[in-house]
Design a protein that fits this description.
With 278 residues, the protein is an alpha/beta fold. It has one domain: Alpha/Beta hydrolase fold, catalytic domain (Rossmann fold, 3-Layer(aba) Sandwich). The protein is built from ten helices and nine strands. A hairpin with a 5-residue loop joins strand 5 and strand 6. The longest helix has 38 residues. The N terminus is likely disordered.
Length: 278
């Protein structure tokens, strides 16, 4: 007799557990399936660096995006000419299946503006302290539209022989100008390394004419580096307003390499673009 109530309680408890499992099992499976579906449909985020830099400038942003589960790529921008660089990037984009969020910093903004035209799976453009030219425009003209840039005054010209026998000109940022013009809000030790490893940037990129402007048909998001001495903040605001950016984030005190000094803010803006409804 004394054991019977205990047995009844065990049976009742077992039934309750089984019932709960019956209710929660399918829900859990459905939730897992939804999570897997979301992971499959997340866009690939492609990050394009600008002049004097390489893809490592995106490391802090990449770490955050990968931790959040986004497929990511940061291809090397050749920095040879706007037509060359845009064609190279277009080839990279054509190799990616599924939606793409295309991010450009500085000169990389001009490259993505040209490269994304005609690539149907690019769902969003994100401009980080970037050039956003329109058809027929040249960066060397645009950079003087508003005062404040010291980047051109801080460059050194180095000629190089082309494969066709012509002579081209590469630009390098001088050591005494690099930090002020490019990365004033990073530690001096970091900027010394960045200066020593800077990529040669062809002067032709400033005179090449933009032939396509993808922002006319693709929605954009943007970041203003408020203390930028390379691309004046006023010029950035002009670009983003003209492009009708859906969201513009201003980062007070940010230098030209805002994605390095403020990787969290940059990554969140990119996620906003990635998660926006098509």
């Amino acid at each position: 007799m004394g054991l019977e109530p205990t047995r009844r309680r065990v049976l009742a408890t077992g039934a309750a557990v089984a019932g709960a499992a019956a209710l929660t099992g399918p829900l859990s499976s459905a939730a897992s399936a939804a999570d897997r579906s979301k992971a499959r449909t997340r866009p690939t985020i492609v990050l394009v660096h600008g002049g004097f830099a390489d893809a490592s400038c995106w490391n802090g942003v990449l770490e955050r995006l990968q931790h959040a589960g986004y497929p990511t790529m940061a291809p090397a921008n050749p920095l040879r000419s706007l037509p060359t660089d845009a064609a190279y990037l277009a080839g990279v984009l054509q190799s990616i299946s599924g939606p793409i969020v295309l991010v450009g910093h500085s000169y990389g903004g001009a490259v993505i503006t040209n490269a994304a035209a005609g690539i149907p799976n690019v769902k969003a453009l994100v401009h980080i302290a970037a050039f956003v030219p329109d058809k027929g425009e040249q960066l060397g003209v645009l950079i003087n539209k508003y005062p404040g840039s010291i980047i051109q005054a801080g460059t050194r010209q180095v000629p190089y022989p082309g494969p066709d026998g012509t002579t081209g000109t590469d630009l390098y940022l001088e050591a005494d100008k690099f930090r002020a013009a490019f990365a004033a809000d990073l530690p001096a030790a970091t900027t010394r390394l960045m200066h020593a490893t800077q990529r040669p940037f062809s002067a032709a990129c400033f005179t090449d004419v933009t032939t396509a402007a993808a922002w006319h048909g693709i929605p954009s998001w943007a970041l203003v580096a408020d203390a930028d001495k390379a691309i004046p903040p006023a010029l950035q605001r002009f670009f983003y307003q003209r492009a009708g950016a859906r969201k513009v984030v201003e980062v007070p005190g940010a230098s030209h390499v805002a994605m390095m000094s403020h990787p969290g803010i940059t990554a969140r803006l990119i996620e906003d673009a990635a998660d926006a409804p098509g």
